[in-house]
Design goal:
Layout lengths: L2 H16 L5 E6 L1 H17 L4 E5 H6 L9 E7 L5 H12 L3 E6 L5 H5 L2 E4 L12 H16 L4 H8 L3 H23 L6 E4 L4 H16 L5 E3 L17 E5 L5 H14 L3 E5 L13 H24 L15
Parallel strand pairs: 1-2, 1-3, 3-4, 4-5, 6-7, 6-8, 8-9
Helix pairs in contact: 1-6, 2-6, 2-9, 6-7, 8-11, 9-11
The structure holds 6-O-phosphono-beta-D-fructofuranose.
6-O-phosphono-beta-D-fructofuranose binds next to helix 2 and helix 9.
């Protein structure tokens, strides 16, 4: 992690440490940025006794949680730093006395100015994943947990993030041929569903909402593995494509149950099994977290392959940023 990012995280964490009490953590953003933050709620729920919540920014603004006060920590995120809902939500949180931390790719943006403790992340093809949004978010989360739910493992996890540069290059190379073949096979599909659980749910959520619907205009829906058998499995058929992330974490059983059923009825089930990632150099404590970040890298590789096959740039929008809404 770059020194700049590490020092911004340190300042934010020191401020949290200085608070008399922290009894609620809110993760607030829109779209892909909200999906990234979902891992935060997962970690706080599973690793601390502090309640945490994910909010789409405008609900936070228009239907504000009653418990938001000076004992709350609000972590917001906006890649552009310009999404008005997220800026408004951060201003509101600050006005209520909450400690506000934001993540953004743009220093000096409206969000950057709105939060008390801004943290920058890098973006781009040549940039290490340890300094991109998820690397920085996980770095922040591990550092916050080391204060709010102390455990020696957080320092270990923090160090393991440094391995992301090599691990993500390795993961892309490992899945390259499969991604291209899958993209060729699926390029004319009108609908692709995504399924996952646990810490990976945010990743499959953003794959459906942002990668497929927003950036490829492919109909999609994101299904939690635990919910597949409570409705969505009725659409399973030989020609219905699914992308399933199979976790190495505690929810693996849920994902396996989906796989075992779905493969009997569809010929188009893509299973991204985190057990296939080479995590031999990663400390056990950090494996599910590193795997979650790498799964995002792998999914992006599949999405770039399908965008290429379809001749549909990931940058094209019909409505978003093209008009008032
Ligand atoms: O606040 P951000 O991260 O700049 O996001 C704005 C937009 O970018 C996306 O995350 C991806 O294009 C959208 O879902 C969202 O509306």
């Amino acid at each position: 992690m770059r020194d700049l990012h590490a020092s911004q995280i340190k300042v934010a964490v020191e401020a949290v440490k200085a608070r008399k009490e922290v009894n609620e953590v809110y993760f607030v953003a829109c779209g892909g940025s909200q999906a990234v933050l979902m891992a935060g709620q997962y970690m706080f729920d599973k690793e601390s006794s502090i309640p945490s919540h994910v909010y789409t920014a405008n609900e936070f603004v228009y239907d504000t949680p009653k418990r938001l006060n000076e004992n709350s920590v609000v972590i917001s995120c906006s890649h552009s730093g310009n999404t008005p809902e997220t800026v408004e939500a951060t201003k509101l949180a600050r006005s209520k006395g909450a400690l506000t931390i934001c993540l953004s790719n743009l220093e000096g943006s409206p969000l950057w100015e709105a939060a008390e403790y801004p943290v920058h992340y890098d973006w781009g093809k040549e940039v290490s994943d340890s300094d991109k949004n998820k690397g920085i978010l996980y770095g922040l989360l591990f550092s916050l947990l080391s204060v709010l739910a102390p455990d020696a493992k957080w320092d270990v996890c923090l160090k393991e993030l440094e391995k992301l540069t090599d691990l993500s290059a390795q993961a892309k190379a490992q899945y390259d041929a499969q991604a291209k073949a899958w993209a060729k096979r699926n390029k004319r599909e009108k609908t692709i569903y995504t399924i996952g659980s646990g810490i990976n749910y945010g990743e499959v959520y953003s794959t459906a909402m942002c990668w497929f619907m927003e950036m490829q205009w492919i109909n999609s829906g994101c299904i939690h593995s635990g919910e597949y058998f409570h409705g969505p499995f009725e659409v399973t058929d030989y020609d219905v494509p699914f992308m399933l992330v199979k976790s190495i974490g505690h929810t693996r059983h849920l994902d396996e149950r989906v796989e075992n059923f779905a493969k009997k009825f569809t010929e188009d089930l893509l299973v991204l099994d985190q057990k296939d990632l080479d995590l031999s150099t990663v400390a056990d404590e950090a494996k599910p977290y590193v795997a979650a970040i790498l799964t995002g890298v792998v999914i992006r590789h599949f999405v770039e392959a399908i965008a290429f096959e379809r001749g549909h740039s990931l940058d094209v929008r019909r409505y978003m940023w093209q008009m008032q809404y």
